[in-house]
Amino acid sequence: MRTNTLALDQARARLAQQAAAYAFGVPVEEINAPTRGRARAALARQAAIYLTHVAFELSLNRVADAFGRDRSTAAHACHRIEDARDDPAFDAAMEDLEACLRSAPGPDLIPFRMTQ
């Protein structure tokens, strides 16, 4: 994978982590922790992985690389969130998060010009 692609995938993952941290009420540091941690943090991490996969249409391999995890972990996270979406309230919250992330402008969409 090209370095630029990985860096962009990691930026997208960070955005999803921030959104999940906010929505689940957990510090982003807990989402980034190398271990499972509290159940709520683990669910928020799984949601961030799912959101990165769905909202940004990244393959599970790319999502796993962006999160520093393996593909089976990313697949498990997506299955866990898909199962949880049977709950209407959880499903509505995930839909809102997906829409939010999908509407975020990409790094190449905002013109940047330095004025002197």
Describe the overall structure.
With about 120 residues, the chain is an all-alpha fold. About 70% of the residues lie in helices and about 0% in strands. The protein has 6 helices and no strands. It is globular and about 50 Å long. The model has no long low-confidence stretch (mean pLDDT about 90).
Tags for this model:
116 residues, 71% helix, 0% strand
Topology overview:
Layout: H1 3-24, H2 28-32, H3 39-55, H4 60-67, H5 71-84, H6 88-103
Terminal-residue CA separation: 37 Å
H and E string: HHHHHH
Which stretches of 5+ consecutive residues score pLDDT under 50? none
As a percent range, the share of strand residues is under 5%
**Basic shape:** globular
- Largest sheet properties: none
Mean pLDDT: 91
Tally of extended strands? 0
The count of helical stretches stands at 6
The percent of residues in helical segments reads over 70%
The secondary structure category is mainly alpha
Radius of gyration over all CA atoms, rounded: 15 Å
